[in-house]
Structure prediction request, 266 residues.
Amino acid sequence: MLLPPRQQYLDALGIDLWVSRTSAPAAGQPLAAAAIRARAPAPPEASANAAPVAVPPAVQLPQSAPAAGPDAPLWQALREEVLTCTRCPLHLTRTQGVFGVGPQLADWLVVGEAPGAEEDRRGEPFVGAAGQLLDAMLKAIGLDRTSNVYIANVLKSRPPGNRDPKPDEVSACMPYLQRQIELLRPKIMLAVGRIAAQSLLGTDAPLGRLRSQVHHFGAIPLVVTYHPAYLLRSPGEKRKAWEDLKFARGVYQQLAHGTISDGQRA
Prediction:
């Protein structure tokens, strides 16, 4: 049975949605299936003359298209700097610099720690298994890297063996991210993972203490959650990540009404 898209994304997060049952499930029908069916809209009746609906093939998400508008030359110049950067020794072992992906007028900015092997090969952040989970997480709250969220990393070059970034590497690369933020002017930032959160907030506090509250990067509200690679290793934490995403969405919605606060969520 095909599930509604949002349900598919929540399934990827391991999140169950419970709905009121208007009737008991049919004999032999799993309760979960009955619950999903209860919340799904009834499909429209097919016309006898209706043409079959073609299912589009999966497409590879491209890197950001060239920026339009007055900031386009600045974006392009910054991209060229990243791709040719030699500020730290990582340029000797990387395949290429990984700049970022997404519309360059997005309200949301997601920041990870560094490219992995697949990102280094393809030149785009979050494209491996962790990237697929991140896409599902974002789509569950209405975000998509092709339309309304920009994704970048603190480091633009892959550390060998996917080791943690060194402090001097973060210091060398952070100015690039800061300039991306200045050009993007996001309304909210989501830091995924301990290293991204600590680098952006200038703290060594553990991720568990940074979750569930609104921080700021400059004047921009920032929310912290788990890195999707960690969630793949620890699927039991996916529910906490879902709470973080709902919290971030709530912060963004409050921004539109001018009621954001710095307090912890209830």
The longest strand covers residues 220-225. DSSP finds ten helices and five strands in the chain. The radius of gyration is 21 Å. The CA atoms of residues 254 and 260 lie 5 Å apart.
